[in-house]
Amino acid sequence: SASISDLSLLVCRFVALLLDIVIVAGLQKLAKRKGPYDISPGLLDYLTMDTYAFPAGHASRAAMLSKFFLNHLVLAIPLRILLVLWALCVGFSRVMIGRHHITDVLSGFVFGYLQFRLVELIWMSSNTCQMLISIW
């Protein structure tokens, strides 16, 4: 069975991911920046609210999750390096497939880090997490 601290970490990561989706979608709607190629968004893009390029949501979420894991899991150095490389690969793969400009990805990394800091600032206690779960 999961401990309370595990539950707290899980709930906070979930809240951080929801926050990321809302913030990135809002920023994309404000900026309305198109990607480098005129690719028409597909149905999945509309469902995931990923119709604009700035900031890159994949990069934002990869940076935020990797920072969470680096801060809250005890990982050997090779795993820490692989985690950072994974986040970088996620972000830069978006440039390589033509969905984002490099500045979209770099800004996504920055927004992901800032969102991580925000969630760390408002870190929910175990009691708050249990209350949120009991509401659902």
What does this 3D model show about the protein?
The chain has 136 residues and is mainly alpha-helical. The chain has one domain (4-135). It is 73% helix and 0% strand. The chain has helices spanning 4-31, 43-47, 57-72, 77-96, 102-121, 126-135. The radius of gyration is 16 Å and the shape is globular. The two termini are 19 Å apart. The model has no long low-confidence stretch (mean pLDDT 80). GO terms for molecular function: sphingosine-1-phosphate phosphatase activity. Residues 9-120 form the Phosphatidic acid phosphatase type 2/haloperoxidase domain. This is PLPP7 phosphatase. Keywords: Membrane, Transmembrane, Transmembrane helix. The chain crosses the membrane at residues 7-27, 73-93.
What are the defining features of this structure?
mainly alpha; globular; membrane; transmembrane
List the topology elements:
Layout: H1 4-31, H2 43-47, H3 57-72, H4 77-96, H5 102-121, H6 126-135
Helix pairs in contact: 1-3, 1-5, 1-6, 3-4, 3-5, 4-5
Q: Count of DSSP E strands?
A: 0
The H-and-E topology, N to C, reads as: HHHHHH
- Describe the largest sheet: none
Number of helices: 6
Oligomer type? single chain
Strand content: under 5%
Kindly give the count of domains. Answer: 1
Indicate the structural class.
Answer: mainly alpha
- Mean of all residue-level pLDDT scores: 80
Gap from first CA to last CA = 19 Å
What is Rg? Answer: 16 Å
Q: What percent of the residues sit in helical stretches (DSSP H or I)?
A: over 70%
Residue windows where pLDDT falls under 50 for at least 5 positions: none
- Shape type: globular
